[in-house]
Design goal:
The chain is of the alpha+beta class. The protein is built from 14 helices and 25 strands.
């Protein structure tokens, strides 16, 4: 609508102008929002059994969260420390004070999502030497969904009535010989209801409702914008400067657009879509209600009533087109087609679409009846208005529901592991492959020779798994950063074999490679210490070494190096007898085997030991090379001769 600015000479007008400017500044302080946060991973994992009590609880969300008003509780009651955020405010880490006893423990958590809604959920895990069957999984829901839905419906309704009344004045002005009498204004009550509902949402968002909690968080600022916007609209109505209410009400719509689901998918386009959708829907509903009220007042003036309804019908056609177009695009952004009929969000969205279609059909019926001389389509218009009011209810409901998560959406970091890790490493062409298997998942990281910015390197990986029973299946991998992939799976006891096909653009050679994962994990730091002690006592021996940076060209040229055990350990990462990950592997031909991993360096080692703990074979996988070593020790007679 085109609005001519009134004169600023009136003190109230100047005050409203300054307040509206402050509202615009508040909007400028708000960062891009996210839709409802979803709990993706936990450590310990949901429904998992860990042998050792965890020192901390880790919760990973798909989007940023804030800790204002958040809490994490353990049942049975166990004291926990202060929660901390990391990984771009998407990971919450809570230290556990004390030692958790054996048994099942329940974690109840609560965080504030960036859209302002408080999300809650719970999951269970067990501590003990034996696995416990837990099938509760993990849940994520909005806190206080019913009060939030009611308050947001009141906010939408107040916005619709205000915009509808302002639109009525412009439409009535176009009616020739229009009666001077108009229905009693609902503008002030609507503005007060809108302000009250926005304040109620602010209290729900911040928990305690304190001013500091409001201004310190983005959700609090957005909720405050709604309250201030309606308050300014109420002042504009009181001082009879109704046109000035348009600016703060626009701020209300922008604030709602900044916190809605589509904005999380497309920061700019999603906000614009919601702004158009909410504005058009509010005008459609509000204007129709006000038109019906006016037609009731003008019941004796059929010509004027017919002209007013015709003017609204022309506007409603454009509003309907805007609602449908923006709604369809937003729905395609938010809901995969497979989830439309299988999720609560999808089914309510379908109900909303159906009601919009019913309202459109009723509007068409009213338009046809409008052409009949002597008849005014009161009944179809009333039913249309009722249907649109229900549409607002469903729209408010959708704001508190979590949109279906895209299971293929990329993460920017690897999920946390749960319990002991089984490491594995290999090389496919010029691409290093580092894998970490833990309870319920596997993380696979690829590395290629670095040229330029490593974040600009593209990677691709496909994988198939053959479990100990011989069952083969393709794994559905999900990205977790540059060169990082993971998938959720349940490990069977025994050795599973992974077949991986890796590539890194056209400049680096990729290929296929195989990894073996033996489950369950058997941490054995003592065996590493035994090995280091035995190697320190080893006299000079012959080390046979193959080094390659491209397995497609073979394992490299053989080099032989006479060396002592101490000299060898001095150049090895495990020379101190310590490694971040140590796992016992199945014996091979009577020889013990040990796997070591250095996740930060993407380095894995596979050691085969003799009966004395000395290394017989070593395979080292690093980001840029694969090293294969064989150790040949002198016979006892040769050792005596050397001594």
């Amino acid at each position: 609508m085109t609005v001519l600015a009134p004169s600023l000479r009136h003190p109230a007008t100047a005050l409203l102008a300054l307040a509206t400017l402050a509202l615009a500044l508040l909007l400028g302080t708000a960062d891009p929002a996210s839709a409802h946060a979803t709990l993706l991973f936990t450590s310990p994992a949901a429904d998992a059994t860990v042998a050792d009590p965890p020192q901390s609880l880790v919760l990973v969300f798909d989007q940023q969260v804030s800790l204002g008003g958040s809490s994490v509780r353990l049942e049975p009651a166990t004291p926990v420390g202060t929660a901390a955020l990391s990984q771009g405010s998407r990971t919450v880490t809570v230290p556990v004070r004390g030692t958790l006893p054996e048994g099942v423990h329940t974690v109840d958590w609560q965080v504030t999502a960036q859209d302002g809604d408080i999300m809650t959920g719970s999951y269970r895990f067990a501590v003990g030497p034996r696995p416990v069957a837990l099938t509760s999984g993990q849940s994520t829901t909005a806190k206080d969904p019913v009060p939030t839905t009611i308050l947001r419906w009141l906010l939408f309704t107040a916005l619709a009535l205000l915009l509808g009344e302002f639109t009525l004045g412009r439409l009535a002005a176009r009616v020739p010989d229009a009666p001077a009498r108009l229905p009693r204004s609902w503008a002030l009550p609507a503005a007060l209801v809108g302000c009250g509902s926005a304040l109620g949402l602010t209290a729900l968002v911040t928990g305690d409702g304190s001013l500091r909690s409001v201004i310190d968080t983005r959700p609090g600022i957005l909720s405050l914008i709604g309250a201030v916007g309606f308050a300014l609209a109420a002042i504009a109505v009181l001082v009879r400067r109704r046109r000035w209410a348009i600016a703060p009400l626009t701020g209300v719509v922008v604030a709602e657009a900044l916190r809605a689901h589509p904005q999380a998918e497309q920061a700019v386009a999603g906000t614009v879509l919601t702004f158009v959708h909410l504005t058009a829907a509010a005008l459609w509903v509000g204007a129709l209600v006000q038109i019906l009220r006016t037609m009731a007042v003008w019941r004796g003036q059929r010509t004027a009533a017919r002209a007013l309804l015709l003017a609204y019908a022309r506007l409603a056609a454009w509003l309907f087109a805007a609602v449908v177009t923006s709604g369809v695009i937003a729905a395609l952004l938010l809901v995969p087609l497979d989830d439309v009929f299988t999720t609560t969000y999808g089914r309510i969205l379908l109900a909303k679409i159906a009601l919009v279609a019913v309202a459109a059909a009723l509007a068409y019926t009213a338009r046809r009846l409008h052409r009949t001389p002597g008849r005014l389509p009161y009944r179809p218009a009333r039913v249309e208005a009722s249907a649109l009011v229900v549409v607002l209810v469903l729209s408010a409901t959708l704001t508190v529901l979590r949109a279906p998560a895209d299971t293929n959406r990329l993460l920017s970091f690897a999920p946390p592991t749960t319990g002991p890790i089984v490491p594995a490493g290999i090389r496919a062409g010029e691409i290093g492959i580092s894998a970490r298997a833990s309870t319920g998942q596997i993380i696979i990281e690829l590395t290629a020779p670095q040229v330029g910015d490593p974040d600009d390197q593209s990677y691709d990986l496909s994988a198939t798994l053959a479990d100990p029973r011989g069952t083969r299946r393709a794994l559905k991998l999900r990205g977790c950063g540059t060169g990082c992939f993971y998938t959720l799976l349940t490990w069977r006891k025994g050795t599973s074999h992974l077949t991986l096909t890796a590539s890194a653009g056209e400049e680096w050679a990729g290929g296929r490679a195989g990894l073996a994962v033996t489950w369950p994990s058997r941490p054995d730091a003592a065996l590493l210490r035994e090995t280091v002690a035995a190697m320190k006592e080893a006299p000079r021996f012959m080390l046979h070494e193959l080094v390659t940076s491209n397995t497609a060209r073979g394992l490299g040229d053989l080099k032989q190096l006479p060396i002592t055990g101490k000299e060898f350990l001095a150049a090895e990462p495990y020379g101190s007898g310590i490694a971040p990950v140590t796992t016992r592997l199945p014996d091979e031909n009577g020889h013990r085997r040990l796997a070591l991993a250095y996740p930060a360096e993407h380095t894995q080692l596979d050691l085969t030991l003799d009966e004395d703990g000395r290394i017989l074979h070593e395979t080292l996988t690093a980001p840029n090379h694969l090293v294969t070593r064989t150790f040949v020790y002198p016979e006892p007679e040769e050792e005596d001769h050397e001594h």
